[in-house]
Amino acid sequence: MTSINLDMDILRTLVLARQLGGFRRAAERVGRSQPAVSQQLRRLEDQIGEPLFRKSGRGLAPTEAGEVLLSYARRMLDLNDEAVTALRGRALAGEVRLGLPADFAETWLPEALGRFRRAHPTVRIGAVVDRNRLLLERLDRGELDLVLALNHGERADSRPIAALPAVWIGARDHRPLNPGQPVPLVVAEAPCFFRQRAIDALERAGLAWSPVFVSPSLGGIWAAVEAGLGVTLRTTSGLPKALTSISDLPAPLQPPLSLTLHDGGRSLSPAAGRLADIVATTLQDRLAERSSMAA
Questions:
Q1: What residues in the chain have per-residue pLDDT under 50?
Q2: Domain 167-246 coded CATH 3.40.50.720
Q3: How far apart are CA 168 and CA 22, in angstroms?
Q4: What is the phi-psi region of residue 31: left when phi exceeds 0, alpha when psi lies from -120 to 50, beta otherwise?
C-alpha cells in the first residue's frame, strides 16, 4: 500500500479554521484566499477518500472523519512546531523569571511551560504566582522578566493577549438565590478588582450583599463556592469542573478584562522573548479553540 503524506500546511489551516470558527478567518491568518483554502480542502478529501466537512448553516462542520483527522492534526502540528523550535533554539541558555496570577497557574500555563522546556531544556524557568499588582511591582523592580496580568492593559509595556469577560460563578448545583436576602459573596481580600466589580454590579441593581467568605487565595475562593457558601465574580479561565457560570445575577457593566504580557519596558533576552511568544501563542490558541467549541 502506498503511503500518503499529509500536507502540514493544509492541516494547519484546518486546525486554525476549527479554532477561529471558520475558513474565512483561517485563510486570513495564513495569508491565503478562501478559494485557495477550499481547493486545499478538496485535495485533502481526495487523499483521505471521504468528506471531512459538511454544510452547517452558513458554514462548515467537521464530519466524523474530520473530527478524527483534526485530533491527529493537532498532535502532528505540535510535534512539528516543537521540533522546529528545538532545532532553532538549541543555543538558548540562562534563566527566565515569569510571574502570573493564580487564574492561569494550573490550567493554561503548564502547557506553555512544557512546550518551552522541551524546546529549550537548558533554560531555567522560575515561576511566581501572586496577585496582579504585586507581580507588576516585582517586574518594575527588576525581580521578574515577564508578567502575565489581568486588567492592566493601560501600561505602556502591555502586549495584548485576549479580552476576558467577568462572570458570576457558582457551584454546579447552584439554585437561584432567595429574593430579599443579601447575596452571599465569596471574594478576595481588598483591594481586588473582581471584588469591586461584583459589589458595583449588585449595588447598581439595588441588591444587598454580604461577604460570607474572604480568602487571600484563589484556591480558597473556589473551595468556598464549591461548598455552596456563596457566589463569586471571576473569569472562566481555570474554572474547576465543580463550578459553573450562573446568570441569575446582574452582569457587571465594565468592559472585559484585558489579559496582557508585560516586560517592564526592558529589552528581553532571547530566552525570555521566546517564552513570551510561546505563552502568548498557547493562550490565544486555546482561548480561540474554547470559544469556537462553546459556539
A1: none
A2: no
A3: 29
A4: left
Contact 116, 290 (CB under 8 A): no
Instruction: Look at the pTM and tell me if it is higher than 0.70.
Output: no
Domain 94-164+257-294, CATH homologous superfamily name and number: Periplasmic binding protein-like II (3.40.190.10)
DSSP state of 144: -
Which residues lie closer than 8 Å to 187 by C-beta, 6 or more apart? 194, 195, 198, 211, 213, 214, 215, 221, 232
Locate CATH 3.40.190.10 in the chain. 94-164+257-294, 167-246
Query: Which letter, b or e, does each residue of 63-92 get, where b requires 16 or more Cβ atoms within 10 Å of its Cβ?
Result: eeebeebbeebbebbeeebeeebeeebeeb
- The CATH code belonging to domain 8-87 is 1.10.10.10
Instruction: Say how many C-beta atoms besides its own lie within 10 A of residue 229's C-beta.
Output: 16
Strands 94-100 and 123-129: parallel
- C-alpha grid cell for residue 52? 471531512
Grid cell, residue 50, equals 471521504
Helix then strand then coil, in percent of the chain rounded to 5, is 45, 20, 35
Q: Are 274 and 92 in contact (CB under 8 A)?
A: yes
